[in-house]
Amino acid sequence: MHNNLDILVVDDSRFFAEGMEEILKEEGLKAASLTDSTRAIDYIKKEKPQFVLTDIMMPSVDGFNLCRMIKSDDELKDIRVVMFSSKGFTADRERAYQAGVEAFIEKSEALDLLAQHIIKLFNEPVTIKFWGTRGSIPVPGPDTIKYGGNTPCVEVRPGGKSIIIFDAGTGIRALGDDLIKRGETVRAHIFFTHFHWDHIQGFPFFAPANVPENHINFYGYEDRESKLGKVISDQMESVYYPVPITRLGASIQFRPLAAERAYQIENFNIKTIYLNHPGNTMGYLLSHRNKKIAYLTDNELATGKTPGEQKTRKIEDMEYNQKVINFSRGADILIIDAQYTRDEYNEKRGWGHSRYQDTLEVGLAAGVKRLALFHHDPTRSDKKMDRIVSECK
Q1: Exposure pattern of 274-301 as b/e (b: 16+ CB <10 Å)?
Q2: What values do phi and psi take at 262, rounded to 5?
Q3: Closest CA to 380 of 353, 341, 324, 326
Q4: Which end of the chain is least crowded, N or C, by CB within 10 Å?
Q5: What is the β-pairing status of strands 187-191 and 215-221?
Q6: Alpha-carbon distance 382 to 371, whole Å?
Q7: Which residues, at least 6 apart from 172, have a Cβ–Cβ distance to it below 8 Å?
Q8: If residue 282 lies in a helix (H) or strand (E), which one and from where to where?
Q9: How many C-beta atoms lie closer than 10 Å to residue 393's C-beta?
Q10: How far apart, in whole angstroms, are the C-alpha atoms of residue 207 and residue 249?
């Protein structure tokens, strides 16, 4: 989509709309404003701005409906929408996110301060940080400094105040300490692939969970035998940990997900897929701002070969692998299980993890832009990892 305009401001207050336009232009952005929301969708189709800033309460077409019209149009759906309101009601905020906005901002500051907030959002990239990459058990020490010794935890910053976290291994402790140092209110969405110990063991040490102003949402698979809330809280019972989950200060919500489904959560979309691993394990595809991040750890790819057979088929010819390829096709980054070498896999076939050579082939077949080898074996030193990375390149 070709953008002729950086930012369009839609607000029935001429003072606000034209004032914001003027400040944004002074900052070097191509900006325009409208006070008649009934003209907005036609103007957006013509100019295709990167950003639309809209008020909630406007005659005829309010901000919710304008956002829905943008997001329901295939040619416009990637436009980023930010909603302003002089009211900070939770219900309005939730409706805004359901409509597809990227951020919800209260008009409680001077125009120049609001404009700086918008400029920061406009320039803010989607970022990923790996806080834990190791499989099975943490392995701190001098031999794992480069690729990390903490168990799985990946932070995604999609812009705005929300934080997306994949898995809560021991890496989430350092992430939590970093968030505390920033001094910001935390609105976190934690997605669990499954509940093996190395993917949940860090949460009791996630410091933001103790702060009353923070909000933490847990997502993961749930069935009759394993309830999401019970699985997470059981590891904090007194026999394992001195502080029960009910004593945490933050607001906590448990939100079960089903596999092979698509969900819209606040300003991002999540798709789920069953992964080949013992127990119920899900992978995720995060879509936001026309970016795609696939997170498929604890996953055993098909090899087309059983013990004793010598011939193999191409990796993409096998049904399960093709499903994984289709799910992650064209992703900006694919974070995927690559725990074993060929020799290790021969001894651990059926344990639910992949050979890094197969992971590489799947990444190539899916046409992903970047491939992140993940869930490293605890026996793997940095020197051994360097050799694997060199071979894959």
Answers
A1: bbbbeebbbbbbbbbbebbbbbbbbbbb
A2: -125, 140
A3: 341
A4: C
A5: parallel
A6: 18
A7: 131, 132, 153, 165, 202, 203, 205, 206
A8: strand 282-288
A9: 6
A10: 10
Q: What angle do CA 147, 153, 159 make, to 5 degrees?
A: 110
Check: pTM over 0.70? Answer yes or no. yes
- Nearest CA to 101 out of 129, 121, 128 is that of 121
d(CA 122, CA 81): 10
Q: What is the largest CA-CA distance in the chain?
A: 77
DSSP calls for 318-354: SHHHHHHHHHHTT-SEEEEE--B-HHHHHHHTTSS--
What is the Cα 246 distance to its own chain's centre? Answer: 26
Q: Scanning the structure block, which residue is given the tokens 């949940």?
A: 200
pLDDT at 123: 81
pLDDT digits (tens, 9 = 90+) for 113-161: 888 888 888 887 889 999 999 999 999 999 999 999 999 999 999 876 7
Helix axes 111-123, 14-26, angle to 10 degrees: 50
Cα–Cα dist 282/158, whole Å: 21
Element (H, E) at 135: none
Rounded-to-integer distance, Cα 320 and Cα 93, Å: 40
Following DSSP, what letter does each residue of 36-65 receive, concatenated? -GGGHHHHHHHH-EEEEEEES--SSS-HHH
Q: How buried is 23 (Cβ within 10 angstroms: 0-12 exposed, 13-18 middle, 19+ buried)?
A: buried
First to last CA, the chain: 32
Place of tokens 């409208």: 34
Provide DSSP, 11-25. -S-HHHHHHHHHHHH
